[in-house]
Amino acid sequence: MASKAIIQCSSSSSHVMRTYDVFVSFRGEDTRNNITSFLLGSLESKGIDVFKDNEDLRKGESIAPELLQAIEVSRIFVVVFSKNYASSTWCLRELTHICNCTQTSPGSVLPIFYDVDPSDVRKLSGSYEEAFAKYKERFREDREKMKEVQTWREALKEVGELGGWDIRDKSQNAEIEKIVQTIIKKLGSKFSSLPKDNLVGMESRVEELVKCLRLGSVNDVRVVGISGMSGIGKTELARALYERISDQFDVHCLVDDVSKIYQDSGRLGVQKQLLSQCLNEKNLEIYDVSQGTCLAWKRLQNAKALVVFDEVVNERQLQMFTGNRDSLLRECLGGGSRIIIISRDEHILRTHGVDDVYQVPLLDREEAVQLFCKNAFKDNFIMSGYAEFADVILSQAQGNPLAIKAVGSSLFGLNAPQWRSAVAKLREQKSRDIMDVLRISFDELDDTNKEIFLDIACFFNNFYVKSVMEILDFRGFYPEHGLQVLQDRSLIINEYGIIGMHGLLIDLGRCIVREKSPKEPSNWSRLWKYQDLYKIMSNNMAAEKLEAIAVDYESDDEGFHEIRVDALSKMSHLKLLKLWGVTSSGSLNHLSDELGYITWDKYPFVCLPKSFQPNKLVELCLEYSNIKHLWKDRKPLHNLRRLVLSHSKNLIELPDLGEALNLEWLDLKGCIKLKKINPSIGLLRKLAYLNLKDCTSLVELPHFKEDLNLQHLTLEGCTHLKHINPSVGLLRKLEYLILEDCKSLVSLPNSILCLNSLKYLSLYGCSGLYNSGLLKEPRDAELLKQLCIGEASTDSKSISSIVKRWFMWSPRLWYSRAHNDSVGCLLPSAPTIPPSMIQLDLSYCNLVQIPDAIGNLHCLEILNLEGNSFAALPDLKGLSKLRYLKLDHCKHLKDFPKLPARTDLSYTFLLPILGRAVELPVWGFSVPKAPNVELPRALGLSMFNCPELVEREGCSSMVLSWMIQIVQAHYQNNFAWWPIGMPGFSNPYICSVIPGSEIEGWFTTQHVSKDNLITIDPPPLMQHDKCIGVAYCVVFAAHSTDLEMVPPETERGYPVMGIVWIPVDVHEDVVTDKSDHLCLFYSPTYIGIGDWKLKVKIMDKKGFPVEVKKYGYRRVHEEDLDLEPSLNTAGIRKRKRGTDE
């Protein structure tokens, strides 16, 4: 095996970086396939870099140079002594070289005595004596060889006398675990989970910070601050430390960018981040600071915790609990806890009362050279002819990592004359600070890219790339090319479609905007601080150079609670305007006709200025405004794409928007005085999103043209709306029609039934429809005379024909729940249900019979028949793509369903609810949410509360086999996995709930629950790498309990590491089957469950604890997925001998 390169950062450097953590010396024929294999696997699973030789290196008489080099660059040496170790000259030469390399650090050599007595090694007795007798005979005529044999004797004696592990007659797994833990401690700082580029200069800094934390002191709670200039690497250091020590704590969390969270969500937002991570509850609901304070005190009390707060810029951001008590978090945590606070301002840390402050040092010369080479040359060496330039640049950068990266990246690929010019500029400004160095990268940009840089620095950090590109395009800045240039020069990053700019570069951009008139914001081109806006407005300045304003009111802006906005009338060049949370007054006679994006919540005026010509307007967001009407006359709105007037409670009418031919998004949610919609809305062909939720005075809709692009129409809560305009049925692209709580709605047009693109129809709470009998159907359809549906009537087939047409045209139908007072219903027969049906939800439709045709829907993936009255199901064996079947609360169901014989998940997967995304507002922050639709998140079968089910024996084996088929399909098709219990539309997990109280014998580890938890033991070391997941079976009580909501405290150092939500509600009043139920679920190993000993709590879908009676689990191996055709566990092939648990 080829050795890794030894890194040198300059020709003058003699420092050699160690490239391996551990070197293992062993006799292959003795231990390669047993203890050495297990040891190497365990070390690698911990992220430890191990050198592994192969047989190709063991050829010839002399030891390979690659092996010698690997020894020289390793940190820890493990020597596995076996009976035949001394008979290998290779092993003895390795050992001798190890001893030569560790003369000053003998503690780095760890001997293991596998099947040999340690005294045989020290005294050269037994097999070792025999080996050396052969060497004496073999080399007796060769004096040099005999000298070498003597060095072998000395090496064996030296290492044999070291304290090691005699593992004869002991559990190899237990001993290997001890050895691995010893190695981890000796290695100290370990960054296997961090990118190698982040390692420059990091190890020594982590060691120094660990000393500040005093981890050995287990009785106190210590708070340490990390401070330093921008770009020094404070966050990277904290993350490296967090990676290293977090597993030493019961709970741990890293709250990233506290300043941003505080700005967006205040103290409550910081609280939520802290508690949700510490308590491992992603969707933790906290409604006020007092509640969060109580929860922290209750749930974190006495816990040994590691808490990291990053990017704290104000003292108030740490006052996240009631009473503003900075010390509350310290007081409620258990002994040994550590709190780390990261801030550029050391005064904040001292004021908070930290125990110590660690000032992150600049990079030293060697570290700076190494980092510079990585960025300027994409290599580990300074190129010939550039050393002089590099020296000047590094001396000016003064060890600031971000400055080194930025300057180095800007010089990459340039020739020597260009470097010379850059160095000359640095020499002229050598008295300037780091900002001057970063300025070089800015100055090299062309004028357009400079403007892009300044816009991002002032406004668009952490914005979606797509949104920023749209605004920059409006500004005429050619963003696609410009953003790539900035990214190439390390001025921005693009991760997950979000633009990021380091705080040091943000400071640079804002300094550039201010530099010509530092104290006169009226002369700036951009404005981002509330105080500066207040100064301009209070003095009624013209600010003719101002092009963009984006101000969010912060709670820190004391004394600036209200501004007069008269000066806006004078800003003739303004292109972007955002006032968020700003209380404003005064008068507004004019707005710049150059404006393209306006976001102004709580707009105080009743209309926009009459003189305003919105020719260039792209987006207008006036949430919670006082506006009554926008304008009277028709305006040129050719560029308008999004209009948001939500919660404008005084809005009485919309203007004629006939000129807004590009309008895509119209949000009028909560406009409670709006009675009618301007007819021009129905003519806008590009309109894709129309939200009229809670327009409680709305009585009619406009007529919609047939060729509209409307995809989403929300009428939820329009309580005065009685009829739906039949033209809605002409909207061929409509996917979501939400009519929830339209209590006065008495009819639906037949034309809606022709919407073959419709994915979701919600009629929940439309009591007028239910009372009219629209959604009811008698058992005998022949008795039905006429039903009024919209403006038309139907014949005696009535609702049956309607349901047939729905099935025919909607392959992803989500049928609404009917009321419990409806009588039994019948579904249409076989031919009317289209074979392309993918998802079918007929829950709570009071169906008394399910047609056999459902068994022929070969594309069906999700079938929800919950809450119906049928007694039996048709044969479902042919539904090979079925992955979710829900039969909860089917109180008359007697027969267990026949599940699919094979599961094929190869062609599709659960789609997010919004489907193809509609363009959202990009300048404002009001982004309407997706429809409130609870798609099934589980893959499997749910049969909770089916009291009449007769044949329960064998149910669990059938469900287990089906579950394993689903796991097999995922494993073979390499689908992505999601953690179990994670809420959200796109986070399904494999889980089944059925009646039963006995756990199948296939689950090899079974226990009675003593603490209402599942306790999972760590896997045997030799099986760890072979395990692909863990299958669980839990017996739980199907009734409500008085169990506390708070998870129990840790037990013997093993915390509650996970929560599994089962997809049922045991606290519902409708639960009549009080017998025990089984929950079978599966977790892939890589998401964490099964990797170590931990405890898992079981909750129902509403977050209430479930009483666990007993449980079992099995570590699943690939061979467990090799099923026979029969649907029972007898067909599951046993694992090969040697891998059984």
Automatic annotation (TrEMBL):
UniProt keywords (A-Z) are: Leucine-rich repeat, NAD, Plant defense, Repeat
The Swiss-Prot or TrEMBL record annotates one GO molecular function as: ADP binding
Q: Where is the TIR domain?
A: 18-187
Name a biological process GO annotation: defense response
Entries under InterPro entries matching the protein: Apaf_helical, Disease_R_plants, LRR_dom_sf, NB-ARC, P-loop_NTPase, TIR_dom, Toll_tir_struct_dom_sf, WH_DNA-bd_sf
Gene3D superfamilies the record matches? Helical domain of apoptotic protease-activating factors (1.10.8.430), P-loop containing nucleotide triphosphate hydrolases (3.40.50.300), Ribonuclease Inhibitor (3.80.10.10), Toll/interleukin-1 receptor homology (TIR) domain (3.40.50.10140)
Supply the SMART domains for this chain: TIR
Query: Which first-to-last residue range defines the signal peptide?
Result: none
Q: Which residues form a coiled coil?
A: none
Q: Does the keyword NAD apply?
A: yes
Protein's name according to its UniProt entry: TIR domain-containing protein
State the encoding gene. Answer: LOC100790778
